[in-house]
Amino acid sequence: MSCFEIISSIISSIAVIVSSLVAWLTYKNLKEMQNQYFEQNRGHLIFYIQQYPSDTIGSLFIRNYGHSPAKLLSISIDPDIVWEKTKYFKDCHENFSDNKNVYLAPGQFIKSDFDFEEYPDTRFNVILRYETCSKFYTDSFEINISYMNSTTKLETDIKTDLKALIKISENIQQFCDKFP
Fold first, then answer.
1. What count of Cα atoms within 13 Å lies in the side-chain half-sphere of residue 100?
2. What is the 3-state secondary structure (H, E, C) of 48-95?
3. β-pair partners for 92
4. Which DSSP symbol is given to 1?
5. Is a pLDDT exceeding 60 seen at residue 155?
6. How many angstroms separate the CA atoms of 94 and 60, rounded?
């Protein structure tokens, strides 16, 4: 075997190794891009409580913030948010955690008004189970409603000068209510 053939074989071997490495890195990159694309476009259900300082009635929400439909399989709230603990108990209300097997398109939500005035519980552990794009998800988190008086409301649907001035006035009032 000549020196030229040996050098040619070494260069060919190095080229095969480099090509294999590039092919493997390209595969990993494409796989990651596919995962990112899926995560960006799947349904994403979020549970939250919205209450403003000037209101005694709050709202419980489950909203699909994703770009694909999602099916709420179940919601578990511990301790459960129940009307029996409210100041003005009415036995005609259903519990929010009874929502099951609800299909939500992107941007759709489930909302229930709730009276949090003098409600004894402030911390809730939430477990949300849902299905989207043929995959199942379980999200769990804690919500502390004692921070509700520290939140502000922001709306951007102002179209006239009068609405802008009214909104500025409301926001200043909300801000002053938070910092007496």
1. 7
2. EEECCCCCCEEEEEEEECCCCCEEEEEEEEECCCCHHHCCCCCCCCCC
3. none
4. -
5. no
6. 13
Distance CA 50, CA 48 (A): 7
H or E, element range at 143: strand 135-144
DSSP label at residue 43: -
Task: Return the H-helix or E-strand segment holding 148.
Answer: none
How long a stretch of residues is the chain? 180
Residue 167 CA to residue 77 CA, distance in Å, equals 34
CA distance 57 to 1: 89
Q: CA–CA distance from 96 to each of 7, 41, 164 (Å)?
A: 74, 27, 35
Distances in Å between the alpha carbon of 123 and those of 83, 94, 131? 16, 20, 26
Q: Count Cβ atoms below 10 Å from residue 164 Cβ, excluding itself.
A: 11
Amino acid identity at 180: P
Residue type, position 59, single letter: S
pLDDT (tens digit, 9 = 90+) per residue, 76-91?
988 888 777 777 666 6
151: confidence class by pLDDT, cuts 50, 70, 90: low
Annotate 108-140 with DSSP letters as a single string.
-EEEEEEE-TT-S--EEEEEEEEEETTEEEEEE
Residue type, 3: C
